[in-house]
Amino acid sequence: MVNIRTRLTYQFIALVTLVLLFFSLGVYFFSKLYLEKRFFKRLQDRAVTTTTLLFDLQQTDRTVLRVIDASDKEPLLSENITVYNQKTKQVLFSSNPANTQFHEQFIPQLDSAQQTLYLRKNEYQIVAIHLTSNKASNWVIISGIDQAGREALDDLKKILLVMILVAILLLGVSGWVFADRALAPMSGIIQQVNTIYPANLEKRVEHPNRSDEIGLLVATFNQLLDRIDQALTTQKMFIANVSHELKNPLTKINSQIDVALIQKRNPDVYERTLRSLQEDTRTLTQLTNTLLELANTSIRVDTLPFESVRVDELLWEAKTQVQEWHDTYRINLTFPDFPDEEEALIVSGNRASLKVLLMNLIDNACKFSPTSTANVDFRSKGGRITVSVFNEGPQIPEADLPHVFQPFFRSNSTAQSSKGHGVGLAVVWQVTQIHKGSIQVNSGPKGTTFTFILSCSETF
């Protein structure tokens, strides 16, 4: 594959060569037009001189014409002069009688309405002038070859061709040098990037000019490094927290089994041990399922199937599911200002993930409520569906509110009042972002409210 330096050089050569060719063709074309115009003017002057000799001076001796040729510094090549009478249809005079037929072929093209005609035939240039005097109507036809003009055009062609070839050579060298200078900062950037490893990911690429295109590229690359650094930090924290959360119930389960196997015990002790193991296993299963939900919503954002979902029905399903898992939970659903139109209850989204979101909000509210009660308020107004979940649990400090949706974060005010892993609200946040909605939390002395808002007219 050709590198950028070589491609830039080729493109520079091609572009400037095209400009030079266009310029050279223009010079050659306009030079040709100028030489033709100048030669036609010479032929016209020659015709006027001949007319004066033949009619004004009444001289037809070719000796006079030879005198005129001798006085001409640039004699015409293959000159031929013919005088044709339009009324008698006869040739009155020809400087080259043997070649009279050459001019006679142009006689049908003569038009009395025009004073002068300019014609071309092969390498000949022809001028025909219409003269009228003493009721006579004559045409003076003169032709010749512009040998000097042809030689000048040939020389010009050779000069332009040589200059273009020399220019292409110079363009190749200069283009290579300038491309090298233009790409020199890229070499430094490559060297800096090669020194960045996961161990020193905080290092950033430096570039002196931050306003040019390379500077913008460096800024974009540094932003990518920031995101990678943040992702790796989150991953490390995630792995550390998962290891810690999984280690506790596994250690507890293993310890209880070891104690139960030390000696034989009565059935009641075994029953209590099994119930404790069942509780620990349920906790471990719930944590595993929550982690899987968080992983699925994080990884499969673009592959989640969307459909029309009626939120009020989904809310009843979430309430029923949570109460099946926890029969001590009380969930109060209220639907003030219930809309008459069914369209006001439907959103476009992923049914399974939205159900997980609602279940996590309800479970979280019941878990931290002293009475295990969650008050859920459903509203649909102005094309937006709002679900508010309130519990009378302890107030979350204002400093902790911005972090409640981070994975494994637990506020000190709630960590001791109830068991948890700090993953449920992270799933809520991720699902909200997927559905382009919003989630807010307000906490006060009387309790905490989570408000989920989603547009019912949004098309995904």
Automatic annotation (TrEMBL):
Give a yes or no for keyword Kinase in this entry: yes
Q: Where in the cell is it found?
A: Membrane
Question: A cellular component term (GO) from this record?
Answer: plasma membrane
| HAMP domain residues | 180-233
Q: Which CDD domains match?
A: HAMP, HATPase, HisKA
* Pfam annotation, one family: HisKA
Q: What EC number(s) has UniProt assigned to this enzyme? A: 2.7.13.3
- Chief subcellular location equals membrane
Q: Which reaction does it catalyse?
A: ATP + protein L-histidine = ADP + protein N-phospho-L-histidine
List GO molecular-function terms, semicolon-separated: phosphorelay sensor kinase activity
Query: In this protein, which residues make up the domain named Histidine kinase?
Result: 241-458
InterPro entries recorded for this chain?
Answer: HAMP_dom, HATPase_C_sf, HATPase_dom, His_kinase_dom, HisK_dim/P_dom, HisK_dim/P_sf, Sig_transdc_His_kin-like_C, TCS_sensor_his_kinase
Keywords assigned:
Kinase, Membrane, Phosphoprotein, Transferase, Transmembrane, Transmembrane helix, Two-component regulatory system
Q: Where are the transmembrane segments?
A: 12-35, 159-179
The answer to keyword Ribonucleoprotein applying to this record is no
Q: What protein is this chain from? A: histidine kinase
Originating organism: Spirosoma profusum
